[in-house]
């Protein structure tokens, strides 16, 4: 029998807001949406759960995270981007075990569940995010990273990547059909300064052959642009110090990817801060998708991705928080607010990035960017019951005259009171139900103690 959820407002996103709205859920899907009397008359026997002065809306979709790096929140503040990466890689390999990274990923799941994030696209080179997401009950794409700046490493790196994808596929099969219905695999040849042209060609071919989605950190910084154009800058210096012969592309990262066949995969490109007009044209032409991570880009001083221009060109894009090692929060509401204010300030235009547009970016547009819009991203009959409720009774969001405005400009992740994925409640009454939050917190303290020492 279905169950009914009702609240002062229901925001389906792809259709108008419903005052005193309700939805009916049967197993993992939405079977009705409308006014409370209408939904109740369709299912007179169904139990009704009234959330009161709250908004029911689709779950948030965070299209770029690194769950395994959650333990690094606040650990690497201030250094230049290239040094930040080098320190992160060193600390992770020298101090943390596989179990530590799993604890870190579990903490990331707890944080994002509480923040109303029902779907995430996570990139990592560790094995931790997949088991953490199997346990957490969230939906997601697990992008397995690969590295290799030396051309001669390319075949080996691809072999390792293929073996990891094989292992993940088996782990997912062992986890059963429920997990398989929520989680999918992808690949992530990390970034143009850590992956050779040859490896990009092989990885793109592999993604097309295996029908795997592909995500890449792209056009993130001025140093990346310098490396691509003429081999100069911090990345060029670092590669030379390591005696790696990295021939520069002599072009932008996007044109480099175009020549290598990477754009043929219609990849999910993370960041895209340093785009020129030709790059924008190529992205639109190849139906590439963009993960916009404004806080991470701002924190590193990298700049601001051309969101408005990308939207004008019809490029599919969603919001990502990036890792908490560079954010330092997975609060997608805060990300959206920051995004809106930043682009309005940069363009000196208060009509840009409205609350409605931001909410679409966090839901249906994020779903489109992950090619999941047929299943998630809005409240529609037949779609997955991936939804959240946001309480509007708190002092910080009172009064409220319009729930969309309240969510984007007054609320925070802490106002989320319900998180549901495929009809399963993951968070309710301030308790995470799929993971043991106390145990996750206890475990993370031993991990953070390892990272706390200087050096
Ligand atoms: Zn990232």
CATH superfamily of the largest domain: Metal-dependent hydrolases
CATH fold-level label of the largest domain: TIM Barrel
CATH architecture of the largest domain: Alpha-Beta Barrel
Number of helices: 18
Number of strands: 17
Mean pLDDT: 96
How far is it from the N-terminal to the C-terminal residue, by CA?
A: 58 Å
Write down the domain tally: 2
How would you describe this protein?
Strands 1, 2, 3, 4, 5, 14, 15, 16 and 17 form a nine-stranded mixed β-sheet that branches. It is built from 18 helices and 17 strands. A hairpin with a 7-residue loop joins strand 1 and strand 2 (18-26). The chain has two domains: 3-58 and 385-438, Urease, subunit C, domain 1 (Roll), CATH 2.30.40.10; 60-369, Metal-dependent hydrolases (TIM Barrel, Alpha-Beta Barrel). It has helices spanning 36-42, 81-95, 98-114, 129-136, 154-175, 177-182, 197-210, 222-230, 233-241, 253-260, 277-285, 294-299, 307-312, 332-347, 355-362, 364-369, 403-409, 437-452, and strands at 3-10, 18-26, 29-35, 48-50, 54-58, 60-65, 117-124, 139-146, 183-189, 213-218, 268-271, 289-292, 316-319, 387-391, 416-421, 424-428, 431-432. The chain is of the alpha/beta class and 455 residues long. The termini are far apart. The longest helix is centred in the middle third of the chain and has 22 residues, at 154-175. The mean pLDDT is 96. 42% of the residues lie in helices and 21% in strands. Helix 3 crosses helix 4 (129-136). Bound molecules: zinc ion (ZN). Zinc ion binds at residues 64, 66, 217, 270, 322-323.
């Amino acid at each position: 029998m279905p169950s009914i959820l009702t609240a002062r407002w229901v925001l389906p996103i792809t259709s108008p807001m419903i005052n005193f709205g309700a939805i009916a859920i049967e197993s993992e899907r939405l079977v009705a949406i409308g006014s409370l009397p209408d939904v109740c008359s369709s299912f007179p026997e169904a139990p009704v759960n009234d959330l009161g002065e709250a908004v029911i809306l689709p779950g948030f979709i965070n299209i770029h995270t690194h769950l395994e790096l959650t333990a690094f929140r606040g650990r690497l503040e201030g250094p230049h981007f290239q040094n930040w990466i080098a320190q992160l890689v060193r600390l992770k390999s020298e101090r943390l075990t596989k179990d530590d990274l799993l604890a870190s990923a579990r903490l990331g799941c707890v944080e994002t569940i509480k923040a109303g994030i029902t779907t995430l696209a996570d990139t990592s080179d560790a094995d931790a995010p997949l088991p953490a997401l199997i346990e957490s009950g969230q939906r997601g794409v697990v992008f397995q990273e690969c590295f290799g700046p030396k051309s001669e490493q390319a075949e080996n790196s691809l072999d390792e990547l293929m073996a990891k994808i094989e292992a993940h596929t088996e782990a997912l099969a062992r986890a059963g059909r429920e997990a398989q219905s929520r989680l999918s695999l992808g690949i992530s040849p990390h970034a143009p300064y850590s992956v050779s042209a040859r490896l990009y060609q092989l990885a793109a071919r592999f993604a097309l052959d295996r029908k795997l989605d592909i995500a890449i950190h792209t056009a993130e910084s001025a140093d990346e642009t310098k490396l691509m154009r003429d081999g100069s800058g911090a990345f060029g210096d670092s590669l030379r110090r390591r005696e790696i012969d990295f021939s520069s592309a002599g072009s932008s990262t996007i044109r480099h990817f175009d020549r290598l066949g990477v754009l043929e995969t219609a990849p999910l490109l993370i960041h895209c801060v340093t785009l020129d007009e030709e790059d924008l044209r190529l992205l639109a032409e190849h139906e590439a998708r963009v993960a916009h991570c404004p806080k991470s880009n701002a924190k590193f001083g990298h700049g601001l991705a051309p969101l408005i221009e990308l939207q004008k060109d019809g490029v599919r894009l969603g919001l990502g928080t990036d890792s908490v090692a560079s954010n330092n929060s997975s609060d997608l509401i805060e990300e959206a607010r920051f995004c809106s204010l930043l682009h309005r300030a940069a363009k000196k235009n208060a009509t840009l990035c409205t609350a409605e547009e931001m909410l679409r970016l966090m839901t249906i547009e994020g779903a489109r960017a992950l090619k999941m819009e047929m299943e998630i991203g809005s409240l529609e009959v037949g779609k997955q019951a991936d939804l959240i409720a946001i309480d509007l009774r708190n002092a910080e969001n009172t009064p409220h005259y319009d729930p969309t405005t309240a969510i984007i400009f007054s609320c925070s992740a802490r106002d989320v009171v319900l998180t549901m994925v495929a009809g399963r409640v993951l968070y309710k009454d301030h308790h995470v139900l799929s993971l043991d939050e106390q145990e996750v917190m206890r475990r993370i303290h031993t991990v953070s103690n390892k990272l706390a020492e200087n050096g």
